[in-house]
Design brief:
heterotrimer; A: 334 residues; mainly alpha; ABC transporter involved in vitamin B12 uptake, BtuC; two-stranded antiparallel ribbon; 14 helices; 4 strands; 73% helix; disordered C terminus; B: 345 residues; alpha/beta; Rossmann fold; six-stranded parallel beta sheet; 50% helix; disordered N terminus; SBP_2_dom (chain B); TAT_signal (chain B)
Chain lengths: 334, 345, 501
């Protein structure tokens, strides 16, 4: 357990060898995968996914789900882009407006799912459609010409890192502290394992997931704003389409159970890396469009298989380093 | 309070019915969306419409509402409709052929006087066009032609792609001596995309056979194009030419190049796209290496959406009423460039 | 012999539930299986039903020997088990329930005609009065049970096992069930009857087997045996529970409930003084659990609940906990345990906020708190990181108990619902010891609910008898014994029937 890559840890995170194998494979095939430029590019592209996947993972761990993030992303991008291009908004006001839009969507989702008690699948499927319409109604034409202040959000360097990567790291750090080190972190797991038991233990079973819906909405909108800044343009109709599935995929491939109550942020970060490397590598190798799709689908199935095997591998790994941990010998146990 | 929340069991059921709901909600939203602005008078629809007085409503069925070009054309179509005193109804097909078919059935069922439809799959819509005609509805095919139709509004997508490909090839000959690297951002998923792709790639490779093709990636929006181009650049940092199936895609390619450190006006780089999106046109005007766009002329198309069905109502034949809206390659210094930019208001 | 179990062994994570059990039941015999909670009765029945594979021993049914059964094999071998919690689908009809999963088929379609005919014959054989098309959800408990038995009989069993079949029945229904059992006995079934009601043993059984701590303590014919003999056979050696703490009548009540009412409950008035342990005794469905849940705010309520003299205004668990009122629910898996979370999280979840500094959890304070809790509750294993599901039932229950009595939260009133359900004998004694200790030393007021009269007698200072959502009797001191408790519930049962038109 002390070694950073113990057999047990490998068994717990079967994505580690997969990600390493993919990296090695792509490097051998192209000779240009492992280069600081390309790796940094992957990190930058994956940053927006991570920024949304992390709060989404917390939501899934608590037994809920937000499918509306793809549209919230578009709304956040439109809100920031509109202020920047039409009114010359500063970085701060653009980000604030974007966060506000995301919080509003999160509040609607949270109210309907946590307070009223409707199914999060249906509610967020509804907001997925509705919020996309809102974003398109608000900005039917592409927005461009954002000005230098807003461009900083996606284009600056923070401590040597591209700003999207730095923001993603902050999100991971904050979520990690909340999940691992605060009582609320335990409550998130507890609600996911058994809402009833958590309720009877005095946990705020409505407030906690509500707050996670708010966080997910805000982060989705922020990710949209970051991407708008990186691109210097927003298309309300295409921004973030299918993003909710990428988020859900990263969360699930990262080992978070859709049934709630289990999963780690490290796993989700691995899931994001897995998707980013896969996308990058397939393009790098030059796999034709539809074969890329086939490969992506197969890779997901493989990852799902590994996730299925993980607890079994972990059990094996747990037995092997401690062969003497048997209880008192049982007479003729077999 | 007796059950402050749903039991785990019911949540599982909800998850299982998730897929079933996806379609259902979409359909419900669409159904309510297209019945809202209904204001047709019932009596005049029963006979075949023969004069423009009978056509008080035109239904425009455009499936790719998420494309920027849609909003542009829609603006001009609405303006023209107002001028002509007809109301314009719009569908929301969400880019799905089955939703489009259902929406057309609804329109035919309620006997709108005229339908202008952009078929996602041309063969699949033929039967509905026939049904519309026999119900006395004027049917205008948008983006192509059908056997059953009153008239058509066409653009040559293949031609737009070809013009872009040829221009880029000519540029490469002049500035690179015909040798260099090219990457294409394409669309293989819908007919319009395949036409543009074929025109663009065939024309370019024919005219510039020594250019090395280092990428052919699916991308129609800037976001995807940015990611894909970055990956291409990781292996080929010296790509000279990027041609996009849409201006959105080309814009993403342009961004990736700039991000990789390419100067905005680098003389050895050419990016070109199609559609004539405002952001791209402004880059062309500014004098960057975003050099050309095969631009649709939004005002002309918008006008045609209203004018063609009205011409049919006035008794014009298919050949007389049908319009082919030209696609023009616009470059820095063209008068058309400023004209189209001004169309965006 | 129809059923012959030889040397059956099974352990769960180091706890030996069965250690070499023999049980023989002949055709046409009613065999009473007795023993306290945790003696191994449930484990034995589940082994026969194929819920798990035994570690050793054999099960012989009608001449065929098995070292372990799957649920399917168990049914095919001819074993039918009627559990307390019936396996019926309430929304389906009687006939559909009887043939669920084994529909009669004709040309690939369900042959409804022959199903209905057979269902009618089965119900007649059992003396059931319900119709084959009645919806099961609308039937009274006794009829539901007969449908369950009919379902079992449709598979032609040779052994019928009834697990505390009368626990949820009215006295009228109990009489009918006993007649049914005799009929089936005469038809040649081997019947295993699990109960802890001695009257039933006397009236019905030919033989009895008493389990204690996973072994057969006594197995004998009941021919010529008196109730005295039976009680002696079951009685356990006296255990050294801590002395009952003194309860001072002068102390103001720690828990004071007046006019508590809700759907099907109340009005209920009751008081529990500091250091007092009060037992709520009643049959399944009498309203014990609902009463506790209303007190805790899990269900809406009318009336007043005061803790330490202060009104608990809002009916929510959070408000109850803030006032010092805590509940250990009876449905451990569904309402109490976080099965995949660690033992430490399970025991300390509500206390983690108190132990944290500047909003961050203190790992050290939590580990220390868990260690002291594990020591005082004898939690085994005492590893804080092990998931709760890997613990035995008894240790899971101790984790839940520990959630409220860890000394970090100000629990002054503890509500326990079936505190020893599904726990082994040792854990049961330890739980009794812990409850006695916190009542005696911390002066915690304890109100617990149980269907087990022995448990009430063993643990309570005072018992309240619950029937149909109301308190119908109170017993304490020398008057508190099992016979008096059973008499009190069945008395109220017949009182009610007299009032019916």
């Amino acid at each position: 357990m002390n070694a950073s890559v113990s057999p047990r840890r490998l068994a717990r995170y079967p994505l580690i060898p997969v990600v390493v194998a993919m990296a090695v494979g792509f490097e051998v095939a192209t000779g240009s995968f492992v280069g600081s430029q390309n790796l940094l590019g992957i990190a930058t592209d994956s940053a927006t996914l991570a920024i949304v996947a992390i709060p989404s993972a917390l939501l899934v761990i608590s037994g809920y789900l937000d499918l509306s993030v793809g549209s919230t992303y578009a709304l956040g991008a439109v809100a920031a882009g509109w202020l920047a291009s039409e009114h010359g908004g500063s970085l701060l006001t653009c980000v604030l407006l974007s966060l506000l839009a995301g919080l509003a969507v999160g509040a609607v989702n949270g109210f309907l799912c946590c307070v009223v008690g409707l199914s999060p699948f249906i509610v967020t499927l509804g907001t997925l459609t509705a919020v996309r319409g809102l974003a398109q109604q608000f900005a039917p034409l592409p927005l461009t010409g954002f000005g230098d202040s807003f461009a900083w959000l996606g284009g600056a360097k923070v401590a040597g890192l591209p700003s999207p990567v730095a923001i993603a790291l902050i999100v991971v750090l904050v979520a990690g502290v909340v999940l691992a080190l605060t009582p609320v972190g335990r409550h998130i797991y507890a609600i996911g394992v058994s809402r009833e038991a958590a309720y009877l233990s005095g946990v705020r079973v409505r407030t906690v997931p509500f707050a996670l819906f708010l966080a997910t909405g805000a982060c989705a909108a922020l990710a949209g704003a970051i991407k708008a800044s990186v691109l210097g343009a927003v298309q309300s109709g295409t921004a973030g389409t299918g993003f909710e599935l990428a988020v859900l995929t990263a969360v699930l491939v990262g080992g978070v159970a859709l049934t709630g109550g289990s999963g780690t942020l490290f796993g989700v970060v691995l899931g994001v890396a897995f998707l980013g490397i896969l996308q990058n590598g397939l393009t790098l190798v030059g796999v034709p469009t539809f074969w890329q799709q086939v490969a992506q689908g197969l890779a997901l199935v493989v990852a799902a298989g590994l996730a299925y095997l993980a607890p079994r591998l972990e059990a094996l790994a747990a037995v092997r380093p401690q062969p003497t941990r048997r209880a008192t010998p049982e007479p003729a146990a077999t | 309070m007796s059950t402050p929340f749903s039991s785990p069991g019911s949540r599982d059921v909800n998850r299982r019915t998730f897929l079933a709901w996806t379609g259902g909600i979409g359909a419900a939203v669409l159904a309510s969306a297209c019945s809202a602005p209904e204001s047709t008078s019932g009596s005049s629809n029963k006979k075949v419409a023969t004069s423009s007085k009978d056509v008080d409503t035109i239904a425009w069925d455009y499936p790719f509402t998420f494309l920027p070009v849609y909003a542009g054309v829609a603006r001009f179509a609405k303006e023209r409709a107002k001028e002509k005193g007809v109301s314009l109804e719009q569908t929301n097909d969400n880019g799905k052929p089955d939703v489009q078919a259902a929406n057309l059935d609804t329109l035919i069922g309620k006997k709108v006087p005229a339908i202008v439809s952009f078929p996602m799959v041309f063969e699949a819509i033929e039967a509905q066009a026939a049904k519309a005609l026999s119900a006395g509805i004027i049917w205008v095919t948008y983006g192509g032609t059908l056997k059953n139709q009153s008239a058509s509004i066409t653009f040559s997508f293949e031609e737009g792609g070809r013009q872009l490909g040829e221009d880029a090839a000519a540029w490469a000959k002049e500035n690179l001596g015909g040798k260099g690297k090219v990457a294409f951002l394409v669309d293989d998923t819908i007919q319009l995309g395949r036409e543009r792709t074929a025109g663009m790639i065939d024309a370019f490779t024919k005219a510039a056979p020594d250019m090395k093709v280092v990428g052919r990636e699916q991308a129609i929006d800037p976001d995807t194009a940015l990611t894909k181009t970055k990956a291409i650049l990781a292996k080929h940092p010296d790509v000279n030419v990027i041609l996009g199936i849409t201006d959105g895609a080309a814009f993403g390619g342009y961004k990736a190049l700039v991000e990789s450190g390419r100067a905005e006006d680098d003389a050895k780089t050419y990016v070109g796209g199609q559609d004539g999106d405002l952001g791209s046109l402004e880059l062309i005007k500014k004098g960057t290496f975003y050099r050309a766009s095969a631009a649709l002329q939004l005002r002309d198309i918008g006008n045609a959406v209203i004018d063609v069905p009205l011409a049919v109502a006035d008794g014009k034949s298919d050949a007389e009423a049908s319009t082919d809206v030209p696609i023009a390659l616009v470059k820095k210094g063209d008068a058309l460039l400023d004209e189209i930019i001004s169309q965006y208001g | 012999m129809t059923l012959q179990v030889t040397g059956l062994r099974k352990s769960f994570g180091g706890v030996h539930a069965l250690r070499g059990v023999d049980l023989t039941i002949a055709s046409g015999e009613v065999h009473a299986l007795l023993g306290h909670n945790g003696a191994g009765k449930s484990t034995l029945i589940k082994a026969l039903g194929g819920a798990f594979t035994p570690d050793g021993g054999t099960i012989e049914v009608a001449g065929r020997s098995y070292s372990g059964l799957s649920p399917r094999q168990s049914i095919d071998a001819g074993i039918a088990i009627i559990f307390q919690h019936l396996s019926l689908v309430e929304s389906l009809s009687v006939v559909d329930n009887i043939f669920l999963g084994q529909e009669h088929r004709r040309l690939g379609l369900v042959d409804r005609g022959s199903q209905r005919a057979e269902a009618r014959a089965l119900l007649e054989r059992l003396g059931a009065t319900c119709g084959v098309d009645d919806r099961v959800g609308s039937l009274p408990m006794g009829q539901k049970q007969l449908v369950e038995i009919a379902k079992a009989l449709s598979r032609d069993p040779v052994v019928l096992i009834l697990d505390e079949p009368t626990a949820a029945l009215s006295s009228h229904e109990i009489g009918a069930l006993e007649r049914t059992v005799r009929t089936l006995q005469q038809q040649g079934l081997a019947i295993c009857y699990v109960t802890h009601l001695l009257g039933e043993v006397e009236r019905l059984a030919d033989r009895m087997t008493v389990l204690r701590d996973g072994v057969v303590h006594v197995s004998t014919s009941l021919e010529g045996k008196t109730r005295r003999d039976i009680i002696e056979a079951i009685a356990e050696p006296a255990t050294d529970l801590p002395e009952r703490g003194p309860v001072h009548a002068a102390d103001p009540p720690q828990l004071q409930v007046t006019g508590l009412s809700g759907p099907g409950i109340g009005p209920i008035d009751l008081e529990v003084r500091p250091g007092e342990i009060v037992g709520l005794f009643g049959l399944i469905g009498s309203g014990r659990t609902r009463t506790l849940e209303m007190l805790f705010g899990r269900r809406p309520r009318h009336g007043s609940v005061r803790v330490g003299g202060r009104e608990v205004a809002r009916a929510t668990p959070r408000a109850a906990l803030r006032a010092g009122l805590a509940l250990v629910p009876g449905d451990r898996a569904g309402q109490g345990l976080f099965s995949s979370l660690s033992a430490l999280d399970n025991a300390l979840l509500p206390a983690q906020g108190v132990l944290s500094r500047f909003g961050l959890r203190s790992g050290r304070a939590e580990r220390e708190a868990f260690a002291s809790l594990a020591a005082s509750l004898a939690i085994h294993p005492s590893t804080p990181a092990a998931p709760a599901r890997s613990f035995s039932g008894g240790n899971q229950q101790k984790l839940l108990l520990g959630r409220w009595i860890n000394g970090i939260l100000p629990t002054t009133v503890l509500l326990l619902d079936e505190p020893t359900q599904g726990v082994d004998v040792r854990a049961r004694h330890e739980i009794y010891r812990v409850v006695r200790t916190i009542a005696g030393e911390r002066r915690t007021a304890v109100l617990f609910a149980s269907t087990d009269p022995e448990e009430i007698v063993a643990l309570a200072d005072r018992a309240l008898v619950v029937h149909e959502g109301r308190i119908v009797g109170e017993l304490s001191g020398d008057r508190l014994d099992e016979d008096a408790l059973l008499h009190a519930v069945h008395q109220s049962e017949s009182d009610l029937q007299e009032h019916l038109p």
